[in-house]
């Protein structure tokens, strides 16, 4: 199983001297190695390839144990430093690197620590008990993921856009699908944990200006879907602010993105104008005859009901205009 952490993850090393007659743990050493090239297989396939990347300094140097013991005695007795404290570790490390021929990558564990480099890390570590028994080298391989995910919004149909003075103005209906697709970023993506969004009713100015939209703040709780995809529609007619972001598996959070658009659910209102010469036709009234060609229209002309028809007597020269007005 691949392991991912971020720069805020604390790494803790715990050691225990085993039974039957433990003398207790004296100290723990660790060496963090950044894997390159094929070595990164140790993080991609740790079961097969995660192995210690360095040799124990106690194995490569027969005098290492005595040298470190002398350094400890000096730091504890002469410098009066408490074993296990950061100051004690710094003192012993100085002699380890300067006198005992330890590589400068070796450190004494004195408390939780973090890793900041985005890479595949091979953490080598071992402990020594109070009788000088040295544990075999251990290795833990993991990625440090510093990059947050990136989410892309996609709007389906129906969609209408106009290039305005202050950016693109968008209209959708209450049936227009909106998709959010998130992707964690290279070089070492841990994967998207969740995708979140929030929809807020805002003033029309936010939909008419990209700048105003980006300065507008939403309200209420965010909705979330586990994984890298989300889908929704917006039902209420008005200008809406959509805010969205994603979080990866090591809690790296994307900055909130914003998009403002109109939801239009009202059909346009038609407007017909009949010019002159013309005269309303009222079958059976006002001396107007009943139509024999359109008998179904006789009861509908100007009846004042929802199914009313406007019936006119016109000539071939009568102008008729039709226009529509979209509702606010």
Helix-strand pattern: EEHHHHHEEEEEEEEHHEEEEEEEE
**Major beta sheet, strand line-up:** 7-8-14-13-10-11
Helix content: 10-25%
- Rounded to an integer, what's the Rg over CA atoms? 38 Å
Average pLDDT works out at 90
Principal-axis shape: rod-shaped
Please specify the SSE layout and strand pairing.
Layout (H helix, E strand, L loop, with lengths): L3 E2 L19 E10 L6 H4 L1 H4 L7 H4 L3 H15 L7 H13 L7 E3 L11 E10 L8 E7 L5 E6 L3 E6 L2 E6 L5 E6 L8 E11 L1 H5 L1 H6 L7 E4 L2 E4 L5 E11 L8 E7 L5 E6 L3 E3 L31 E3 L5 E6 L3
Parallel strand pairs: 1-5, 8-14
Antiparallel strand pairs: 2-3, 2-4, 4-5, 6-9, 7-8, 9-12, 10-11, 10-13, 13-14, 15-18, 16-17
Helix pairs in contact: 4-5
